[in-house]
Specification:
Elements: H1 2-9, H2 21-30, E1 39-52, E2 56-62, E3 68-74, E4 92-102, E5 105-113
Parallel strand pairs: 3-5
Antiparallel strand pairs: 1-2, 1-4, 2-3, 4-5
Amino acid sequence: MLLAFVAFAGCNLANGEVKSEAETKEALHSHQPKKVATHTNIISGKIQSVENENDGYAAELLTEGGDTYYLIVSQGSLITPTQYREFKTGESVTVVGEHWEMKGMKHLTVHIIQ
């Protein structure tokens, strides 16, 4: 019975090929999603709007240079969760976080509120 389990565990169910443990791990790893490159930035500007989300909020920030960033703020993404506070429209803020883009819009996952 143990032999049947070992043979079953090493099979590729799609075509019945027997794969080694290393080959199986490599095949699983090759199907994992790739991490998108991000950049850490310090951004300052004025809050244009705030929208509450499930575990935090999203805020639109306009820099002095005219760039718009969509900030994602939650206790879970902050390095020090006790920094968490809700921004107010019109407030000037400086934040540090990971910059990423989606559909041509700039986003920042906030890690530090200064």
